[in-house]
Specification:
The structure holds 2 protein chains of 2 kinds. Chain A has 11 helices and 11 strands. Chain A has helices at 15-25, 41-44, 73-77, 98-101, 140-157, 173-179, 193-208, 224-236, 250-256, 267-284, 290-300; strands at residues 2-7, 30-33, 48-63, 83-84, 87-88, 108-123, 126-133, 162-166, 184-189, 213-217, 241-244. In chain A, helix 8 links the parallel strand 10 (213-217) and strand 11 (241-244). The radius of gyration of chain B is 22 Å and the shape is elongated.
Chain lengths: 304, 283
Amino acid sequence: MKELVIVSGKGGTGKTSISAALASLSPQKVMVDCDVDAANFHLISSAVIKHTYEFKAGFEPYVDENLCTQCAICTNLCRFGAISAGVMNALNCEGCGVCAFNCPEHAITMQEKHAGQWFVSDTRFGQLIHAELGLSIENSGKLVSKVRQEAKKIATANHLPLIITDGPPGIGCPAIAALSGASLALAVVEPSLSSMHDLERLIELVYHFKLPIMVCINKSTLHKENTKEIIAWCNSKAIPIAGKLPYSDAFRTAVQSGKTVMEIDNEDVKEEMIKLWKNLAKRLDIPADLSKIDLLKQKLNPFR
Amino acid sequence: MLISIASGKGGTGKTTLALLLAAADPTVTLIDCDVEEPNCHLFLKPMWHEQAENVTVMMPLMNTDLCNGCGACSSVCLFNAIAISGGKALLFDELCHSCGGCILACQHNAISEEKKPIGTIATGASAIRPGIRLLNGTLHIGTPSSVPLIKAIKQKISQLSGDMLLDCPPGTSCSMVTAVKNSDFCILVTEPTPFGRHDLELAMNITRLLHIPTGVVINKSDEDIGDRTIEDFCQSREIAVIAKIPHSLSFAKQYAAGLIPDDFKSIASNIWEQLHARRRREV
């Protein structure tokens, strides 16, 4: 089983739109939305939630006011300014438990924290695992790992050769959690100075984890000189360009109508998207379309 | 006045708006809190003052001579950052939150602390937009948590005066919350799509939780169904749409090249007027 993770560094370069289009092209797959604090994949794939699961992670302190003597030991030991003589400031709390472990009156207990929900949904393209992080929760990396893990289980149980993962922006803990151990990272870049700068930092992170990477230039016609520069830079680093998508209002129209760009009338984009998918499938060494799988099944079928 | 600019969804135009506002009032300090991917400096081309300041976090340092592998540190670490291996405590520093709990738990004084660099804070003045000062946080690549760096930035700016614009990271998780916290006003930038609308709601939930007065800017406005959906939603939450920035290909092209176009200067000035009027009302 292979896992393709779509990332970008900079937000808004088109990760979700491209992930959804690839999902519509790929014959057999399960999808994961790893942007757990601003998930959007379900909006474009007409997801119907089948199962909802609670996500618990980390701990939060509870103070027993009857036992607390307001000695302020907790206040002095807490490095996050989250507790003042037995009164919590939950927004600052990181759940370390220093207050609880060092309270002489044992007035503080640590309880497991409700940190969000995750879902298994049916979509037009197959099953989708997605999540919603709780308000102001810091366990986004853990929730990312959780949805990826569940997707792997589903892919294994259903003999699906591919997981398509819509990644989070940035290069911090959610991005690290989405990338670690993936088969291939696809970095979506647009020909803007910001996006190119962010790509360089992202690639450094990907190198850090020794992952294979390909680049897709989105909105490539927006600024042709910058597009050339990206290609030259990728060539100099021996990073293959998997695809080049033109700037097109089709992306916006698609999102507006809850569709993928493959379902919108725009041949240029569709053609390039198919090329992108074929390049990725080749690199991942999986069949690019159903007809090939059927052919394979026929060959393998002893009763044909 | 500390104005935070956040969004929920990435790429809606936080940095764009921050730059437009700074260009319209070049006495401000722009603070780039998107430390994973800071971009403001690409447009302002600052002359940096002196050397960037290193930001560090405290990491436990195990003295293997004194450690007898009793496991007291490991048992109080709720982040599972310490394991006992070969009769000694072993730290996984990417999981550590620097809470100091292990040091308090160790009965053998086997744990001390050392500084670990996580990023830098640089300050400078824009070379191409005189008057604009920039404070820029950059997270070291491979560092999982940006929160301590953002906290260090917030600490530093608490000593500054004058109007400050804070360019926040995307999303609604801990890094965004840390950046937005304690600002006087938060501008949420959205785009008129279902994605923008969905993530705007999540971001509004955060500013409501933090009791921060909030306004919305619709970027890439289409004066059509998309805009109306956002406007209706904002109305239902009693949050004002303070500006609309039109969808413009020529603007996008200039911006891609690293320029701050003057096209929407009057929109930015109008936002400032609203912010100042708001402050006068509060005073």
